[in-house]
UniProtKB/TrEMBL annotation:
Belongs to the SusD family. Its main location: membrane. It is found in: Cell outer membrane. It comes from Dawidia soli. This is RagB/SusD family nutrient uptake outer membrane protein. One of its GO terms (cellular component) is cell outer membrane.
Length: 587
């Protein structure tokens, strides 16, 4: 289902109109009957008491997947983007904030592990997810009131989709902040503003599981409208929740059911997961829908959360804004050895050659060593074609090389051929390139991870090789204008049997990084694997010699695994002078 905020805007205007009428009647009434008037929130429900009305509320709940419409400051869209580029990538070893030092300083603080409860970005994410939860609860409270103009099958599916979304929004909060309150329709009272001021003193994983399992048991395997949750989307989301809790047998059952459904497969070309022309392809299990030129004001249905993350200038893609630059560490991870396999332990010993400090008019020859071809669909680097925009020119595409390095982001960027059709006419950075939140490659690599945990190393190797075989197909490589490979690509499958469980786990985790780089998953994966401190502190130690602002940065164990509960939200939960939310440890 398209995230159609135009209809939501119309719906919101309708609410405002109804409230205005209600207030006008109170002011002008000539009898005491106004004393019996129901609260404003209840006045709205008669207009919604139909399948069409309930569906509009479901659309509103879907719309918060990309966070837009959250009322938290001028930068709310960047705080709540579906791809978690700040929290999952910039806060990891995948990416720098980019641009210049003084732009969006709250992101700089997160990047530098200077993580504090008053950072406005944390509050934006918090409010965006709870806004989504509130919209789910609105629908779940409304449905029992609808007695006509709806079938039981329709009612059941609406409940299932609302619970899927509510499970997702709580999942986002859980992996960000850990101890967060679970709010369902039995807790939320629209006529009592104090009703959601509940303590965060219990683990909400069981509630998330309940919501996602309820959705899995009801939802159909396919949906007529793309973007709506299916049985398999719920299965994958629930399996992911199990992975975060190390419930590997439970996750395996669900993931194997997805494989056995024969409904999904890897697309033949890796980069077809990152272009608007191939949205909703056979690899996509759950995808956040973006659209442009659909009547929504300011193109806000496009991928507005990533609107900063484009090459800065140079007469090419855009003139703004230079954020979200890949790290040198990430680029180095794509190096391969003579056998075409990753350098699991030594990848960062020597840098892939770059054009740091070289003017665009100066001579530069790109790195000639062997590389995984997925690098050049993930990172823009000088001398390599940048989608269909021509060869990346280097420094002119970067706002401040000295500050944030020489690389550009790539996966979410529109093609030149998309401009005017899959881009908003008023701002081409707002485009219709959907965010693939869960794709079939996730399923395969989660199964590989589980197989290693269960000492089934050869099964793990098979799953990893399935992903690598797609990457090794030359048809999917970046090519020069003459059709030759753009770099010295060398990638092979693992042919030797896996006998060392530690090496196998490292190989699976490394593959997940390569496959999903710059997609907002990295920090959360490091935390759930229990290797965040060792990995990120090793990263800071080396990167601090390249980026001055990372010098001396440290990941603090038993603190930085989760971000702090936003200070303002703690203050807002006061009841009788006492707060109901408790801050995470060591903040």
């Amino acid at each position: 289902m398209k995230t159609n905020k135009r209809s939501i805007t119309t719906f919101d205007k309708k609410i405002i109109l109804l409230c205005g009428i209600a207030l006008f009647s109170l002011w002008t009434g000539c009898s005491d009957s106004f004393l019996e008037t129901k609260p404003k929130a209840a006045l709205l429900t008669p207009s919604l008491q139909s399948y069409a009305g309930a569906s509009s509320l479901l659309t509103a709940a879907y719309s918060l997947l990309d966070g837009w419409a959250t009322a938290e400051g001028a930068y709310r869209s960047y705080q709540v983007g579906a791809d978690n580029w700040v929290y999952g990538s910039v806060a990891s070893d995948d990416a720098y904030k980019g641009t210049i030092a003084g732009d969006q300083p709250p992101i700089s603080l997160i990047e530098q592990a200077n993580i504090a409860p008053d950072n406005i970005y944390f509050r934006g994410k918090w409010r965006g997810m709870y806004d989504g939860i509130a919209r789910c609860n609105d629908l779940l409270q409304l449905l029992p009131q609808i007695t006509a103009n709806i079938t039981e099958d329709q009612r059941t599916q609406l409940v299932a989709e609302a619970r899927f979304l509510r499970g997702h929004y709580h999942f986002e909060l859980k992996k960000m902040f850990d101890m967060v309150p679970y709010i369902d329709e039995t807790i939320y009272d629209p006529n009592d503003l104090e009703s959601t001021k509940v303590p965060n003193n219990e683990d909400i994983w069981p509630h998330i599981e309940e919501d996602l399992l309820a959705a899995y048991n009801v939802l159909p395997t396919t949906q007529r409208q793309r973007g709506r949750a299916t049985k398999w989307a719920a299965a994958a989301m629930l399996a992911k929740a199990y992975m975060f809790q190390e419930k590997y047998p439970e996750a395996r059952v669900l993931l194997e059911a997805i494989v056995a459904s024969n409904q999904y497969d890897l697309v033949p070309r890796f980069h077809d997961n990152f272009r608007a022309a191939t949205n909703n392809n056979i690899e996509s299990i759950f995808e956040v829908q973006y659209s442009v030129n659909d009547g929504a004001p300011a193109g806000e249905n496009g991928n507005i959360g990533s609107t900063l993350n484009y090459p800065y200038g140079g007469g090419g893609v855009t003139t703004c804004c230079g954020f979200f630059q890949p790290s040198q560490n990430l680029v180095n991870a794509f190096k391969t050895g003579p056998d075409g396999l990753p350098l699991l332990d030594t990848f960062n010993d020597e840098d892939v050659k770059n054009d740091q400090g070289i003017e665009a008019t100066g001579e530069f020859t790109p790195y000639t060593g062997t590389l995984d071809p997925r690098l050049d669909w993930t990172v823009g680097r000088r001398g390599i074609p940048y989608l269909d925009w021509g060869v990346h020119p280097g420094k002119t595409y970067v706002r401040d090389q000295a500050y944030a390095g020489p690389y550009s982001p790539k996966k979410h960027v529109m093609y030149r051929s998309d401009v005017g059709t899959n881009t908003f006419v008023g701002n081409p950075r707002l485009n219709a390139n959907n965010y693939r939140m869960i794709r079939y490659a996730h399923v395969l690599l989660w199964l590989a991870e589980i197989a290693v945990r269960q000492a089934d190393l050869e099964t793990a190797r098979d799953y990893v090789n399935e992903v690598r075989a797609r990457a090794a197909d030359p048809d999917g490589w970046v090519k020069n204008a003459d059709g030759t490979p753009a770099a010295n690509y060398l990638i092979n499958e693992y042919t030797d049997p896996w006998t060392d469980a530690d090496m196998a786990l490292k190989a699976v985790q490394f593959e997940q990084r390569l496959e999903f780089a710059m997609e907002g998953h990295r920090r959360f994966d490091l935390v759930r694997w229990g290797i965040a401190a060792e990995t990120l502190n090793a990263y800071y130690e080396v990167e601090g010699t390249k980026r001055a602002y990372l010098n001396g940065v440290r990941f603090v164990p038993n603190k930085h695994e989760y971000f702090p509960i936003p200070l303002q939200e703690i203050l807002n939960t006061q009841v009788n002078g006492e707060t109901t939310l408790t801050q995470n440890q060591n903040y």
